[in-house]
Structures are given as C-alpha cells and as structure tokens.
Sequence to fold (171 residues):
Amino acid sequence: MAIIYPEGTQNLPSRVTQVVTTSIVSHTTYLGTSFVDTGLSLAITPRSSSSAIICHFYPCFSGSDNSYVAFRIYRGSTLIQTGNDSISGGTGIPCSFGFSFHDEGNLKYSAPVMPVIAIDSPNTTSSTTYKLQFSPMRTSNERVYLNRSHNLGDENQFVGRSSMVLMEVEA
Fold:
C-alpha cells in the first residue's frame, strides 16, 4: 500500500490476510450499572504475531429517556481501546464509546447503529477472542436495548441487527 504525502510517496507493505464476521438479531434488554456482554463476540487466529487486528463493531442500540449507554471492547479479558479517566480527574468511566438518550424529541424511538472501531496488536498466533460489552451508565433505573428501539408497539419503532468484523492486517 502506498500513501502519497506532499514530501513524497511512502510505501507500506501490508495486506489483509483474513476477515471473519458475525451478526446477531436477538433483542437484549439490560437494567443495571455493570458492563455485560452484548453477544457480539468473535475469535480470530492471527497468522503472524506481528499482525494488527482491526475490530469493527456495529451495535444497534437504544435507551430509555435520560439514559446513558457505554461500550467497552475486550480482547479475552483485557479491556482495550478506552479513554483515560485521569484526564477528567478520575471521574470518567473508561469506555470505548458512549451515547446519551435525552428526553427531547423522539430519540428513544430510534435504534441507531454506531461504528466502534479498535486497532489491536495481540502479538500472538493463538486464537484470540474479541467482544463488545455495554452498560447503562449513571443510574440503574434506566434500561438499554440491543437490536431494538426503547419503545415498541406500533409501526414507528425499529428493530435491527448488530454486526462485528475482525480483519487481520500483516505488515
């Protein structure tokens, strides 16, 4: 692969060596304050220990009014791709992605799909599992939903599909 810069072309020998995918359509409702599995989980066996794994998560989710949902990406039991809570004085929740559902308008009737992407270097040729977890934040009184809108019951609400793609890129 070549990248053309004003100073000249930079050749980067890399290639995608494998791609694995999965998706889920089951509806999940969660009420609580801890992180739980979304069901998006997939293993890949890198062909080279120097490969990078590009993780693409596409969760379809919603929440009740004034709910907050946060997502975390794990490689096995190791949390990867998070923010630094020390920047906020230790008050932030380390996560890969967060979203809030305000009680303004009809946001609770939606079920957006938001891309969550991480690049990881597992330094192994053993099977490696990546997964996405989610949690309603700040309160245990608000629910979050996977693959459906908060409100269901008429033709104006949505159901959807969540997907995941893992790509191995060799340098």
